[in-house]
Amino acid sequence: MARMTPERRAFIEQLADEILAHYPRGRLTVAVDGPDGAGKRDFADDLSRELEKGGHATFRASIDGFHRPSSFRYRKGRFSAEGCYEDSYDYSVLRRVLLEPFRMGGATAFVAKAFDYIRDAQVQPKWLTGPPDLYLIVDGVFLNRPELRGNWNYSIWVDADAAVRDERLLAREGVEPGSELARRYSGAQELYERDARPRDAASAIVDNTDPDHPKRIFEDSC
Question: What is the reported pTM?
Fold first, then answer.
């Protein structure tokens, strides 16, 4: 775990306090949405740790645990942006085994991961339970699609400058800027932002270009 700068820690603390002020008790779902390379996973991890530090139970999951098989994901072509946006994830499974049972609480069990996209195979489900007061933090792309709207108590849009996102994708996944694969991802994001307007659904918008010094962005409502 990388050590956080004081500025990042203070920013995460402030955001956690805001969430707690609105949702101090119960089963709460938090989406950490945004484009590839924005730093969503690390941001969600840091937020989870901050909530736990304050004595609040949290659970982490990712949309990456709900991929569809590659034969379905690439049915429109290996580099199709439309295919990336429309066919990458199984939202019905995500709702059925994680979001809906999680929010029911009680003894109802939920599953955090249903598919291993690296092995391209389903995983043996691990049914989990938790206390009545529990925060579920989910990171990933496309979390405010119409299929998932209404499932989040709080939604964070994490973004970064395009050049920085490209550098991160190259370092993390070997995706060359301007390549067909890069255009698949960026094209899918363009479709998502055009069709779903996820920024409008966000409770908070974060500029994570410099992860050591994230900034809150307040957009005009006009």
Answer: 0.95
